[in-house]
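User: Hi! I'm a student and our assignment asks us to look at how structure tokens line up with a sequence. Could you show me two examples?

Assistant: Happy to help. In each example below, the sequence comes first and the structure tokens follow. Example one:
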Amino acid sequence: PETDLPPLVITSELLSSAKQLAPPTPKEAIQLLVSEYNLNEELAKELLFDENYALFMDIAKLLGKGSYLKTVAWMLVQLRKALKREGFQVENITKEQYVSLSQKIYEEKITKEGVEEVIKYLCNNPSLSVDEVMDKLGLKPLDMEAINAIIKKIIEENAKIVEEKGEKAFGIIMGKAMEMLRGRAQGKIVSELVRRNINEYLSAKKG
């Protein structure tokens, strides 16, 4: 042993510090992704062992935590793998394009369906920006007034169904609205407006 060095005393404080410096175990990392980043356990497991894990953490650090991260993780892992199986050249998508799409998801300027359409297009046209692809595909988000006007028109065109089924016509009207608004409006917003417009239509009929 080296005689010029003082003996190293292993204290409880030193052990505690060492534990804090140690990287989390896979189980701890998965629990963190579930509790802190809004992921379900299955998606958290897939992400942890995926090549895009570091990119996900960079995006979360850049944009902050929130429910949007579940869609970001889905895009980076599950959607990418599914499209690769279908033969899409997902390796053409750059980190910058993923970050740009994540920003759109965070700002609620693109739907989950819209994300898939954009990535498919980018696989074959990697030189384009996310904004350029959204323009080409007509995926620019509609404002509340435009969404509301479309829903009112759908209800008017299906007035007989609404009058016969009442509030139970929600599913039919919602389906038609999402088909028409695909990729351009968030489902939760469409759902709220469909329900409100059906109730207003029925109230007006009674009045």
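Example two works the same way, sequence first and then tokens:
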Amino acid sequence: MKNLLILSLLILLAVTTAFSQVPPGVRPGGMGNMPKNGVIKGKIIDGDSKSPMEYANVAIYSKRDSNLVSGGIANAEGIFEVTDLPLGAYYVVANFIGFEKTTVNDVKILPNASTVNMGTIELAAESKSLGTVDVVAER
């Protein structure tokens, strides 16, 4: 009987010790309630006319290894929002057909600042000088 009581107490002690451990992926010290994902948002406009650029592309790249992490498209007001980004450092590339790419470096999603508002990104019209063409016709 005494052995059964001691065994029960040892099992109870082992179970409570196991449940008091910090779960995997959660830092001790209260970091468990911090966000694990972030958001990058902003607005894309034409640099000349200052009008919003609907369907402009936004690509989010990891600063560490330059891999594409995520991306999005601007709406009719030129506003984009890319969600579910892991915490870390990124660079953002905004692009639209006929416009030069614009890169914004050092975009960081931190536990205490999980939403990054990039403000307004202006895209400049791209111009390419082409060679001359001679049209020759025989009569």
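Here is something you could point out in your write-up. The CA atoms of residues 87 and 109 lie 5 Å apart.
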